[in-house]
Write a structure and sequence with these properties.
Layout lengths: L2 H13 L4 H7 L17 H4 L6 H9 L5 H13 L3 H6 L5 E2 L4 E4 L2 E3 L4 E3 L8 E4 L5 H9 L15
Antiparallel strand pairs: 1-2, 2-5, 3-4
């Protein structure tokens, strides 16, 4: 995770929040507004994205020290490219295992802890389920409590 972007974004949200308690906590102006990003922003190396290599991903999802629910969440995220908020809002009625599609039409709001509509119309879409993800989803579906809409797992990305 890019800590600089996360911290700068969080303090920007807090200092411009409608919630007075957050504005008082951080004050005005944003204390991180003038903080420069790490490294030379013009260097080619800093502009390149860091990817997880397939071998690293395989090690992550096979590691027994990582809770199973988190390994499941990472596998779903890696094969579907869902945003963390979309993954958290995903429910079984949105997953069509037989036709290999997921209907993405909502996202989790970390600000108020509720499911909401995506910010834009392009956020509503069908996502194909990769064939390698199907066995995991089938197993998760089998162990889900009957009548439950939530995907089995304790993950909260």
């Amino acid at each position: 995770m890019n800590v600089w972007w996360a911290l700068r974004g969080a303090t920007r949200e807090a200092t411009s929040s409608k919630r007075r308690d957050l504005r008082v906590l951080f004050g005005r102006p944003n204390p991180c507004a003038a903080v420069q990003p790490p490294g030379d922003r013009n260097s080619r190396q800093d502009r390149q994205k860091t990817f997880v290599y397939p071998t690293e991903f395989a090690q992550l999802v096979a590691c027994i020290d990582v809770p199973l629910a988190w390994r499941e969440a990472h596998a779903i995220a890696a094969y579907t490219f869902l945003r963390p908020s979309e993954l958290r809002a995903l429910r079984w009625p949105d997953v069509d295992i037989d036709h290999g599609r997921m209907r993405i039409n909502k996202a989790w709001s970390y600000l108020d802890g509720r499911v909401k509509s995506p910010k834009t119309r392009s956020g509503i879409r069908d996502v194909p389920i990769h064939p390698r993800l199907l066995p995991l989803l089938r197993r998760m579906r089998e162990i889900t409590v009957p009548g439950s809409a939530e995907l089995k797992g304790e993950f909260r990305p």
